[in-house]
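Researcher: Quick test of sequence recovery. Tokens follow.
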């Protein structure tokens, strides 16, 4: 064959391993739910057949229920297993529940069928049915009692070392099934007395030893949950706790034994249900809260029952004549102490579940003792430390006005929530991932609900302290700038003029006798220079405070400004400028008067220069605060405007006094400047403009 033909027909290569894995994963996703549903339907069908077989057998003297625990397991385990497979097909836990339930249904049907055949006189299928029942039961035991705890809740084993208990248990179960297979059927049925006497002791001892090995292997498998719980984070711990709590309802009746062991049949469905909830919906429920409430409820039942017993016994011994009042006395006593007992039991449960640092009210009490002795910054840090200890997280941070206060190491943020102080947002809180502790976040909501208001109070205090510090810095800076301006104006303007006037006076004295005309000219120039000095002094005084405010008051000074601005309005028949004053403007703080005057002055300057307005209206209204409004009907501000020096100066003057200044404008519809200034005298109304 030519070489080019070999290139055209290359050998078929096997797909890479990762491609085959993806293909297998795709098949599991595609066909897994259907297979799981088929297994559940098969198990239910076997249970329906077992119902008919059980009806042919005499009732059990040990179980008052018409069904056995295996019937419940064969029905509920496949159903919840199918739900898990449908939601997460690649997770082995759902498949184990399905197969374990199917094995339980097959076991009980085979065992009851064999018992029915024995009851009817025997049949050749009795021994195969017993062997099949034992084999299926051993597989079910291995799936649910060994593999399930070893793989729960992630579907992966902790390490290869944990394969040892699984291997030992599998060997013991295999040998146990081998014993069942080689043993004569008469050992079970008791048909041949000689065979029973010869073989039964060895059979019983061997299987008993193998069962002990299986029990040890299962105990080791369940101990892996303890190790996994110790290493796990909060979410995985919650997943482990759900089935453990459900198993308590199964194990307790079995430990007590006869006559209450059969109640485990009723609690058996809780185990697969808890596994399904833990795997699929673990974030929605708080297992620690459930345990806490269960402990409190059990404690209350025990205490109330003890009270009734003690009161009843005491009344029988001491007050036998009035024994009919014993129940009433017990009820009154239990009712009077119900709430104190409940609170005490709740504290004990919280302490057992969360330790000393888990009680929200104890945390709040300790925080209240620390806050009065700390400055604002340390108070916020103390609140964050207490909250971090209560939540058992790696770190908590609070962002306030661009600054961050951190307690611990936040790392990746697990939760973010706003801090609100009396309806006002003051910052945001960043909560880090949970650290190691016994129980996860269900208890955290109680801790956050109790301690978050303290954090918000501390954050608001820090915000106020920062704002006060910035206000002081602005006031000091403005004062220093004002002093620098006065120094410059006095030195460069008035100082130089006075020095020149002194030199002129000296020249006039020198030339007075020799040239009176020259002296007269010098004195005349000196007189004109004095007029310039007077104007400079007035300008300096005007820069500190407009004289019109002292001469005319705020209303009169504003009217004077409006009259000066009137010629700058656009010509037209409706050209007008008006001032409206409502409320009493007397007694306003000097800083408020200056700020209002400057804001009106700047707004009118913008109207003259840019607005091309025909009408302008100024309103001064005092009602608890001073509201200043300057409105025109000009062209308005452009849509892409940038705030200039004038607009910024108006906003800064209002902000210095704790007020606001807003500019509203629509192109072609004029501009409105609205300033709100506090009109009550106080320490915050000082500063550079007073």
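Model:
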């Amino acid at each position: 064959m030519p070489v080019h033909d070999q290139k055209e027909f290359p050998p078929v290569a096997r797909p890479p391993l990762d491609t085959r894995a993806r293909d297998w994963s795709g098949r599991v996703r595609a066909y897994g739910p259907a297979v799981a549903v088929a297994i559940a339907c098969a198990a239910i069908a076997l249970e329906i057949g077992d119902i008919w077989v059980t009806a042919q057998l005499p009732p059990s003297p040990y179980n008052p229920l018409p069904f056995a625990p295996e019937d419940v397991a064969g029905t509920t385990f496949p159903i919840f297993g199918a739900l898990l497979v449908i939601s997460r097909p690649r997770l082995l836990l759902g498949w184990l529940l399905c197969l374990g339930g199917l094995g339980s249904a097959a076991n009980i049907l085979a065992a009851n069928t064999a018992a029915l055949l024995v009851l009817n006189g025997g049949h050749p299928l009795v021994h195969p049915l017993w062997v099949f029942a034992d084999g299926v039961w051993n597989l079910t035991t291995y799936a649910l009692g060994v593999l399930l705890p070893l793989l729960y809740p992630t579907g992966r084993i902790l390490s290869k070392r944990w394969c040892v208990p699984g291997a030992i248990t599998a060997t013991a179960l295999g040998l146990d099934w081998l014993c069942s297979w080689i043993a004569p059927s008469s050992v079970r049925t008791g048909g041949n007395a000689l065979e029973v006497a010869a073989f039964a002791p060895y059979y019983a001892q061997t299987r008993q030893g193998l069962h002990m090995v299986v029990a040890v292997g299962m105990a080791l498998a369940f101990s892996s949950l303890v190790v996994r719980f110790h290493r796990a984070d909060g979410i995985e711990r919650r997943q482990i706790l759900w089935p453990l709590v459900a198993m308590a309802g199964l194990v307790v009746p079995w430990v007590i034994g006869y006559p209450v062991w059969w109640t485990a049949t009723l609690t058996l469905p809780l185990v697969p249900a808890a596994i399904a909830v833990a795997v699929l919906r673990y974030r929605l429920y708080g297992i620690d809260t459930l345990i806490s409430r269960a402990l409190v409820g059990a404690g209350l039942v025990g205490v109330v029952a003890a009270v009734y017993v003690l009161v009843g016994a005491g009344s029988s011994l001491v007050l036998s004549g009035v024994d009919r009042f014993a129940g009433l006395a017990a009820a009154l006593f239990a009712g009077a102490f119900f709430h104190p007992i409940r609170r005490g039991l709740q504290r004990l449960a919280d302490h057992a579940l969360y330790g000393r640092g888990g009680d929200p009210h104890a945390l709040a009490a300790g925080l209240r003792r620390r806050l009065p002795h700390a400055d604002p910054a340390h108070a916020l840090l103390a609140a964050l430390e207490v909250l971090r200890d209560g939540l058992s997280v790696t770190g908590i941070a609070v962002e306030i006005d661009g600054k961050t206060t951190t307690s611990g190491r936040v790392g990746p943020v697990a939760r973010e929530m706003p801090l609100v102080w009396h309806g006002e947002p003051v910052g945001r809180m960043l909560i880090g991932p949970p650290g190691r502790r016994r129980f996860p976040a269900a208890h955290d909501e109680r801790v956050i609900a109790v301690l978050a208001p303290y954090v918000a109070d501390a954050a608001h205090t820090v915000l106020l302290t920062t704002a006060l510090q910035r206000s002081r810095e602005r006031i000091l800076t403005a004062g220093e700038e004002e002093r620098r301006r006065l120094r410059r104006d006095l030195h460069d303007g008035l100082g130089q003029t006075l020095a020149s006037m002194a030199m002129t006076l000296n020249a006039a004295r020198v030339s007075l006798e020799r040239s009176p005309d020259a002296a007269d000219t010098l004195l005349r120039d000196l007189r004109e220079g004095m007029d310039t000095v007077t104007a400079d002094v007035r300008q300096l005084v005007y820069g500190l405070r407009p004289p019109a405010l002292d001469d005319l008051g705020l209303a009169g000074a504003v009217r004077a400004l409006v009259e000066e601005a009137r010629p700058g309005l656009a010509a037209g028949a409706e050209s007008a400028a008006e001032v409206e004053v409502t409320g009493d403007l007397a007694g306003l703080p000097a800083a408020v008067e200056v700020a209002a005057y400057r804001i009106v002055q700047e707004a009118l300057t913008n109207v003259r220069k840019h607005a091309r307005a025909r009408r302008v209206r100024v309103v001064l209204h005092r009602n608890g605060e001073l509201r200043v409004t300057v409105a025109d009907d000009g062209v308005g501000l452009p849509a892409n405007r940038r705030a200039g020096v004038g607009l910024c100066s108006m906003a800064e003057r209002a902000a210095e006094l704790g007020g606001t200044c807003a500019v509203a404008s629509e192109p072609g519809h004029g501009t409105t400047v609205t300033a709100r200034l506090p009109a009550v005298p106080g320490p915050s109304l000082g500063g550079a403009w007073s």
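The longest strand covers residues 424-431.
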